[in-house]
């Protein structure tokens, strides 16, 4: 037997003996298309736009269009065998059925902002279902004080814009980065700068449509309250493909106030951050004060910066007198404040300086140009860190490069909803930390350095954050806290990251998962596992 033939045989065996391991993408495409055409009756002309093989000229641009982390935009990043770009519900239904028939993995992508790329990368043969054409939004101001049906491939910016078109005093409590996709954001919990006033994004979801593992389209009534509970905070990707959410809008004042204050460690940053822990989670729910602690970037001569960014749902004079009383260490002056409309405040958080001159239409822009390299992790603080400890922490941060901690206050009305009313469990924490590193050097050494720095901040924070389990926020995806290959230990592995993301709610999520998808078709590196057979 000659060597080439042996290699061929080995390759052949690898491709065909274990589905999901390393199937030939061309064969996957052919098999998939045969099934897809049978289920949808799509014309050959439409097919070229809807089901893309690797050889399609659209394949790479479509794949790249929603890659938001340059770490997963390299030539060695595993690519899907096929991308499906559905235009109608029946395309989604067929994509589910045909991927299941071929025994492959389906990765569902809405806005592609998953920090660890789980919506478009996999270690096994996979198909990407890209929902970017599912972006319809229907706002109805007459329904129950304002509501909207929003398809999951829409962006938050599009939702904000469509609401603003109808009313300047209505809004939606969600993340403030306009390119984030509705699908991942909403099903993972979702929060923004009104979290203390209104709670989480999922607290405003009143209905949804989902394609289940059998390819049926279900709404809240037909899916039942268990599944509807799970997709609010549990991450929808473990349960089905959400096509759209119905959400309730909220009312905001005509004038809101924003302010920013930057302090270095030489300018009493320590006192300010220490006091922030007591004030920010307890003050008026209309006030959201975020603090960013950034290590020095370009060189080590700088000290750590504490940057304050805040939104107040009211006027400047009110917030200034409130802060003078509660938080003198902040030193807020009327000149630090800017009054504006709510929609303008979004532009301000996007770092536009002169918001009066910017048209809200920028919220509709989907293409941020190129993406940086990013790694994120999350933590929850339950008790204020003491001043000496905080001081030591800031000194340790100074030794690191390009890492930061973003402190997001909780409190206010976040706990008005019970911790078991949605799958999101962390409603009684004091504040959340996002560990953050962002860089543009493409070399693998840089990746090791910056990801390593972030793991260092995570280690340093251990004594100060939640324990047993150490909690994490699902939407700040972090594969470091555990991954699952869904082999024989799937439940045990799933419980490791599952308890961190969902606490006590993990058990109900597992029960729902086992009931709606017992064969675990909807799986990814951090999906909800099914109960082991012996425990069903
Ligand atoms: C720049 C930036 C800013 C951010 N700001 C905030 C913020 O202010 N607040 C906040 O809470 N979070 C924030 N996040 C995190 C963000 O909420 C999550 O990354 C969210 O999951 C992204 O949703 P997506 O649809 O864009 O992502 P995707 O990568 O498309 O999806 C994320 C996950 O959800 C699954 N999924 C997506 N769509 C569906 C669907 N229709 N049905 C079933 N499963 C689906 C995917 O398979 C994947 O597992 C931010 C992220 C980035 C990159
Ligand atoms: C799909 O396949 C089934 C079984 O082979 C066949 O009966 C049916 O006619 C096919 N439908 C279409 C639309 O091709
Ligand atoms: C597919 O199209 C053919 C011809 O237009 C039609 O007879 C058949 O019912 C269609 N099948 C499905 C599944 O839509
Ligand atoms: C979006 O709405 C338009 C107009 O009603 C409709 O033609 C289209 O099919 C819808 N798109 C999806 C993906 O539902
Ligand atoms: C260090 O960074 C600061 C702020 O970016 C800059 O002003 C200073 O010149 C830099 N020093 C050196 C030695 O590069
Ligand atoms: C600020 O708002 C309060 C109501 O909260 C109002 O009484 C006050 O007059 C307002 N001040 C200014 C300067 O607009
Ligand atoms: C991905 O890489 C390609 C090729 O290097 C580049 O053109 C593109 O801008 C990158 N995409 C992102 C989102 O950075
Ligand atoms: C909810 O949070 C507020 C503000 O932090 C606190 O005063 C209140 O006691 C909390 N309520 C419950 C039920 O935990
Ligand atoms: C949620 O918790 C409350 C109080 O602990 C309990 O009474 C209720 O039954 C729980 N609800 C669900 C759906 O588990």
UniProtKB/TrEMBL annotation:
InterPro entries: BBE, FAD-bd_PCMH, FAD-bd_PCMH-like_sf, FAD-bd_PCMH_sub1, FAD-bd_PCMH_sub2, Oxid_FAD_bind_N. Its main location: secreted. SUPFAM superfamilies: FAD-binding/transporter-associated domain-like. It is found in: Secreted, Cell wall. GO terms for molecular function: FAD binding; oxidoreductase activity. Coiled coil: none annotated. PROSITE patterns: FAD_PCMH (PS51387). Residues 1-22 form the signal peptide. Its cofactor is FAD. Gene3D superfamilies: 3.30.465.10, 3.40.462.20, Uridine Diphospho-n-acetylenolpyruvylglucosamine Reductase, domain 2 (3.30.43.10). Keywords: Cell wall, Disulfide bond, FAD, Flavoprotein, Glycoprotein, Nucleotide-binding, Oxidoreductase, Secreted, Signal. Pfam families: BBE, FAD_binding_4. Residues 76-252 form the FAD-binding PCMH-type domain. PANTHER family: OS08G0158400 PROTEIN (PTHR32448). Belongs to the oxygen-dependent FAD-linked oxidoreductase family. This is FAD-binding PCMH-type domain-containing protein. It comes from Brassica oleracea var. oleracea.
């Amino acid at each position: 037997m000659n060597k080439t033939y042996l290699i061929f045989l080995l390759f052949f065996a690898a491709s065909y003996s274990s589905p999901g391991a390393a199937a030939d993408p061309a064969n996957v495409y052919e098999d998939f298309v045969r099934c897809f055409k049978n289920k949808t009756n799509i014309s050959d002309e439409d097919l070229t736009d809807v089901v893309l093989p690797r050889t399609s000229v659209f394949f790479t641009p479509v794949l790249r269009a929603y890659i938001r982390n340059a770490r997963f935009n390299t030539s060695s990043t595993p690519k899907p065998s096929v991308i499906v770009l559905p235009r109608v519900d029946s395309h989604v239904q067929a994509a589910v059925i045909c991927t299941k028939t071929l025994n492959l993995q389906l990765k569902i992508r809405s806005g592609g902002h998953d920090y660890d790329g789980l919506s478009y990368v996999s270690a096994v043969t996979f198909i990407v279902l890209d929902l970017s054409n599912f972006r319809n939004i229907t706002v109805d101001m007459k329904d129950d004080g304002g509501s909207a049906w929003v398809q999951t491939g829409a962006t938050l910016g599009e939702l904000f814009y469509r609401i603003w078109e109808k009313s300047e005093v209505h809004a939606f409590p969600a993340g403030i980065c306009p390119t984030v996709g509705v699908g991942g954001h909403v099903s993972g919990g979702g929060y923004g700068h009104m979290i203390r006033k209104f709670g989480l994004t999922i607290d405003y979801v009143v209905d949804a449509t989902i394609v289940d593992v059998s390819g049926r389209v279900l709404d809240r009534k037909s899916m039942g309250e268990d599944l509807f509970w799970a997709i609010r905070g549990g991450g929808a990707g473990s349960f089905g493909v959400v096509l759209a959410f119905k959400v309730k809008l909220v009312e905001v004042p005509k004038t809101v106030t924003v302010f920013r204050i930057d302090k270095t460690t030489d300018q009493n940053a320590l006192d300010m951050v220490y006091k922030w822990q007591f004030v920010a989670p307890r003050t008026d729910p209309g006030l959201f004060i975020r603090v960013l602690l950034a290590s020095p970037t370009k060189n080590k001569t700088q000290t750590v910066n504490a940057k304050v960014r805040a939104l107040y749902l009211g006027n400047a004079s009110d917030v200034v007198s409130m802060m003078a009383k509660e938080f003198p260490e902040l030193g807020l002056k009327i000149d630090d404040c800017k009054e504006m409309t709510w929609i303008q405040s979004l532009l301000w958080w996007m770092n536009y300086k002169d918001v009066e001159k910017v048209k809200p239409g920028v919220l509709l822009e989907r293409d941020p140009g190129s993406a940086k390299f990013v790694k994120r992790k999350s933590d929850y603080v339950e008790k204020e860190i003491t001043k000496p400890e905080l001081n030591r922490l800031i000194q340790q941060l100074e030794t690191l490069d390009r890492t930061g901690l973003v402190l997001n206050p909780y409190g206010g009305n976040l706990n008005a909803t019970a911790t078991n009313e949605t799958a999101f469990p962390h409603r009684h924490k004091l504040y959340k930390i996002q560990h953050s590193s962002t860089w543009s050097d493409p070399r693998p050494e840089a990746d090791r350095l910056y990801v390593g720095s972030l793991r260092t901040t995570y280690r340093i924070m251990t004594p100060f954050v939640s324990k047993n389990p150490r909690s994490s926020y699902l939407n700040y995806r972090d594969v470091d806290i555990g991954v699952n290959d869904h082999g024989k230990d799937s439940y045990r592995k799933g419980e490791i990251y599952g308890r961190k993301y969902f606490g006590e709610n993990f058990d109900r999520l597992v029960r729902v998962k086992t009931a709606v998808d017992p064969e675990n078709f909807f799986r990814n590196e951090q999906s909800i596992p099914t109960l082991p057979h012996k425990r069903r």
